[in-house]
Amino acid sequence: MQAWQVHENGEPSEVMRLADVERPTPGDGQVLLKVRAANINFPDVLMCRGHYQVRPPLPFTPGVEICGETEDGRRVIANPALPHGGFAEYAVADAAALLPAPDSLDDAEAAALHIGYQTGWFGLHRRARLEAGETLLVHAAAGGVGSAAVQLGKAAGATVIGVVGGPEKAAAARDLGCDVVIDRRAEDVVGAVKEATGGRGADVIYDPVGGDAYTQSTKVVAFEGRIVVVGFASGTIPSPGLNHALVKNYAILGLHWGLYNTKNPKLVQHCHEQLTEMAARGAVKPLISERVPLGEAAAAVQRVGDGVTTGRVAVLTGGEA
């Protein structure tokens, strides 16, 4: 089979190589899946660079999120068991963690209705307890993680403010349903949020960026607001001033979605049922900006790493034109 492999750490376009390799052999409790579509996530970029908290042994195949097909023909969503990731014709995954792919979504959309949406659901509902009528601020609102949070926030009845970088991403954020869109390259984010909220600020802030975005969040979080720390796409991990959280009376909430797979897997299943129902009625639909063939995966992963993509980029390996 064909699979992309990383033999040394570095930029994805430089270290990912397409090769003919043997199909992976499932271990105890694992199944072999034919990959139909693999969704590109920022952790794929970080793993190529050697900067992710999970460091699979070299050589490894990146790709942490797929829509695959079982030997008996079922469409499923899975997180491949590294080092045999999803940017390949076949991958292996834990049988107990397979989720049914929603009939309402195609392969690329189904692959994307997992990590980003699960993270959004857990972040907004489990951690921040977002309520209808509250204001939600989403950083990188047109990106893969942010776009999911925007849709979930709207579905929950929140007023959603999206922060983006550039006019194309601003247009995408509006299409996603943001009530207010702020282009950080052209506007003062802090001033624009305060103006949009009448000086009150945002009740919940969803931050997959870190760096300057986190600093902005602390300046616009409302009384009893909650900042959900999801990741650090900026490359800069903030050092929060806890005295500031005390004085302004807000909460800083960390979210590592992957822990729920081992700490509370039933809740992951419950979340998937909620997401499937929302997808069926059109309340959420992954924004797939690009569908690329397997041979173009390395260049696509690099684009995600460079921050120039909107929504999700999917690698198609079969079963869908």
Describe this structure in words.
By secondary structure, this protein is an alpha/beta fold. 33% of the residues lie in helices and 25% in strands. The strands form 3 sheets. Strands 3, 4, 5, 6, 7, 14 and 15 form a 7-stranded mixed β-sheet that branches. A 6-stranded parallel β-sheet has the order 10-9-8-11-12-13, with helices on both faces. The chain has a two-stranded antiparallel ribbon with strand order 1-2. Strand 4 and strand 5 form a beta hairpin.
Catalogue the unreliable spans: none
Q: How much helicity do the residues have? A: 25-40%
Average of pLDDT: 95
Amount of beta strand? 15-25%
What string gives the helices and strands in order?
EHEEHEEEEHHEHEHEHEHEHEHHEHE
Distance between the termini: 19 Å
List keywords for this structure.
about 325 residues, alpha/beta, seven-stranded mixed sheet, six-stranded parallel sheet, 15 strands
Summarize it.
By secondary structure, the chain is an alpha/beta fold.
Give the helix/strand layout.
Elements: E1 2-6, H1 12-15, E2 16-20, E3 30-39, H2 42-49, E4 66-69, E5 75-78, E6 90-94, E7 99-100, H3 107-112, H4 115-127, E8 135-139, H5 144-155, E9 159-164, H6 167-176, E10 180-183, H7 189-196, E11 202-207, H8 212-220, E12 221-229, H9 242-248, E13 251-254, H10 260-263, H11 265-280, E14 288-293, H12 297-306, E15 312-316
Helix pairs in contact: 2-12, 4-5, 4-11, 7-8
